[in-house]
């Protein structure tokens, strides 16, 4: 799902079907926050790159929720598509994301999709989510200036040798406590780097299962897209 600047662009889809209040409640924000998204459930089970995605962050006025384009590139990188993710091993030090590395956010998602070649005519999509049913709080960075160049990327880490045996990268998902620390004012860049390098949720927190190939068409948005066509859990593991 999660591509990196300069690398191959992989399939990238996620789901955000709960309401923003559900996501904020999971994050346990202690103070009042500004909701620029609305009160209704987002209802999106098949979110594609370059489209607006709900993100949570903190600015000078406090916590806020906004819709921001998924994908970002610096103004000088006009020779490539805007990446949708950033590798945790390089994001803090490479020139590509230098401008936005201090601009931290949380992308709360219900789950994400990966596609696997199982030998059939089409790759088989899998849906990945937290086992406990809570939203996954993904560490992100972006440009949030209110202009046309705004966008964000999700930080990804090695998937511990192939989490779910579906792909070798996965989003850095943080616990609610660490997610709030990630976006809180005053964290040094060095501490932020160590947090996402070392403290993401382990693979055991997640489950995965096969879903319909209909998710491959972004026009399909129904809740049936996240329904399993096999049982969740370890039996979803593959040998690639």
Automatic annotation (TrEMBL):
Enzyme class: hydrolase
Gene3D superfamilies registered for this protein in UniProt: SOS response associated peptidase-like
InterPro entries the UniProt entry points to: SRAP, SRAP-like
Organism: Pseudomonas inefficax
Family affiliation: Belongs to the SOS response-associated peptidase family.
Pfam families: SRAP (PF02586)
Keywords attached to this entry: Covalent protein-DNA linkage, DNA damage, DNA-binding, Hydrolase, Lyase, Protease
GO molecular function: lyase activity; peptidase activity; single-stranded DNA binding
EC number, UniProt record: 3.4.-.-
Biological process terms in GO annotation: protein-DNA covalent cross-linking repair; proteolysis
Name of the molecule in the record: Abasic site processing protein
